[in-house]
Amino acid sequence: MVCTSVKKGLECIFMTKKGCSFNGGVCHQIVEECHGCSRASEFVSGWYCTACPDPLVKWRNGDCNFATHVTKETQTKNTKINPLKASKRKTR
Q1: Rounded to 10 degrees, what is the CA torsion of 76, 68, 28, 54?
Q2: In terms of Cα–Cα distance, which of 81, 38, 31 is closest to 56?
Q3: Residue 92 pLDDT > 80, yes or no?
Q4: Angle at 26 between CA 49 and CA 68, to 5 degrees
């Protein structure tokens, strides 16, 4: 349904005929870490995330999985290969 409380005009999964069914009845504003994300949108009552109703929860245990402005670095492991085992694998 279309939100009528905070994010007016935006489709929201928490909106019901009785109103917002999210905890507390309204979405929470974005936190400092959300600035620069493409999912952060400005509405009449402030800045809100279009993907998550409570952004603070997403940032509590590290990076938000919805964040578009955060890039994850992949670490390559430099493990030492046993040359004897490598030669045996090569002969198979």
Answers
A1: -40
A2: 31
A3: no
A4: 10
Tell me if 28 sits within 8 A of 56, measured CB to CB: yes
Structure token pair of residue 37: 């994300």
Distance from C-alpha of 22 to C-alpha of 16, rounded to nearest angstrom: 10
With b for 16 or more beta-carbon neighbours within 10 A and e for fewer, the 32-57 pattern comes to ebbeebebbeebeeeebbbbbbebee
Give 27's contacts (C-beta < 8 A, 6+ positions apart): 5, 6, 7, 12, 14, 20, 48, 49, 53, 54
State which amino acid sits at residue 79.
T
Greater confidence (4 vs 58) lies with: 58
32, 58 Cβ separation under 8 angstroms: no
Both tokens of residue 15?
A: 């909106």
- Indicate whether this model's pTM tops 0.85: no
